[in-house]
Each structure stands twice: as structure tokens, then as C-alpha cells.
Amino acid sequence: MTDARIAEVAPGELRLDGVLDYRSGPALRQAGQALIRKATTPAVVIDCSGVQQSSSVGLSLLLAYQRDATAAGRQLRIVALPGDMRQMAGVYGLHEVLAFDEAVAPPASA
User: Fold this and answer.
1) What is the pTM of this model?
2) Quick one: which of 26, 66, 30, 18 has its CA closest to 46?
3) Which residues of 29-38 are buried (b: 16+ CB within 10 A; e: fewer)?
């Protein structure tokens, strides 16, 4: 199993990496919330290109991050969402709720 993490890579830019599941979800939730609250930019971008695998926990995290950004008066933009997460978001109708960049992450190499 790969450790999951969310980290600030530049002001207002966060990178989400690893396997997003019930084991990594609670820590990612707390860390992401703290980073969004601490941001000083009007928008926060979450780069998901480092996500290796995700259950529905990954989408739950993104929704929670959206709530955090809204509460902090910031916009949230999600970039490089892996194809499987994008498909799940479509099934759940989240394209109207979350701001996804049109760029899709390349498929993970096996």
C-alpha cells in the first residue's frame, strides 16, 4: 500500500497523492482542511495527478474540501482528476457541484 498525502506545492496549490480509501481518508480530511484554511489565495487548486487509486472516499474528500473552501471564502478547482474518479463523479452527478478542470490525468502505468 502506498501512503497517501496532501501537501502544498505552491501558494494556493495542493497536490493529492497515493491511494484514497477508508484507511487514508481521515488523515487526508484533516490535513486538507488545515491547508485550505491556511491558504491566502482567492482560489485553491487541488492537483489529483498523483492519485494512484481511489474508492468513493476520494470523492467524499473532494466534496469536503469544497465545503472547506466555501466556508473560507475561496473557490476550489480540481485538476488532473483520474479517469475512474471522473467517471464516478459523473455517476453521482458531481460535475455540477465540483469545479473540475477539463484536463484528464494520463492512465496510471501498470
Assistant:
1) 0.87
2) 66
3) bebbbebbee
